[in-house]
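Sequence in, structure out. Go.
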Amino acid sequence: LARFGSWELEVPNGGGRFGVPLRVTLFPSREAAPTGELQCRFQCVRSAVSRARGTQGTSTRNAHATLWEESWTLRAGVLQPRLGLELTLPMPASGQPTSVDQRTGSGIHWELNVVIPASSHAHGAMFEIPVSM
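Output:
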C-alpha cells in the first residue's frame, strides 16, 4: 500500500513485472467526484543526485531522464473509499527494474502519476511502483 496525501494505492504481489500488465487500485480517503477525465502517466525515470563542495558551501544537483513512459486518460464516476478505482498499468516487455540508492535517492524509479479533476482544483498523486524482472 502506497500513500500520497489523502490517496492510497494498493499494489499487489510486491509490484510489477516486465511484460505483464499490473492491476492496482486507487483509493480516496473520502468520496471524490471527478469533474472530467483522469490523467494517468506511468513512467520509468533514471535520477542522479550529486553533491559538490565549493567555496559557496555544498550544493545538490538533480538530473532526471525518462527511460519509458505511457500516458492515458479515463472516465470515472464517483470514487468510493471502500471500492476505489482499479487501474491497469501497462508494463513494457523489457526495461530496467527498480534500483534506488537509499542514501541519495539516485537510481531507477517507476512512478505512477494520477491527476483527478475536481470542481475547485485538480488533485494530483504520485506513487512509486516497485518493478522487478
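Check: DSSP finds no helices and eleven strands in the chain. The two ends are 20 Å apart (CA to CA).
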